[in-house]
Amino acid sequence: MKIISYLPLMLVPLVAACPAQPPVACVATLHITITPSVAAVTAAPEHICVNRGDTITVNVAGNPNKGSVSTTPKVAKNTWLSGSNASNAGKFDLFVNDDVVNGEYKYIVNTQGGAELDPRVTVQDQN
Question: Could you tell me which CATH number the domain at 27-124 has?
């Protein structure tokens, strides 16, 4: 005796719907604190709002070595987002040029440990 099992002709895949992550709110500040660690790196706040002509101070938490943290733009032409703690282990500045167009800019935080993060800066009209 042979047992035959029939499967439905049409299998409907179950797709788990992941709720959309709300956008990270833009915080009006000129200070970012980067905390490098072996497990992960954090930038707080993760999304800041600035104006053209502003100088953003990036503080590196902990006891960093000179040259251990840098930022690079996600889009190469946005060079104003490039910086490093090469000359001052505890902090460095990013200057928002007057010709930067309003919009959202992503950058990458690089650390000696290889951890990376991609926070954002939104440039807007002065309030």
Answer: 2.60.40.420
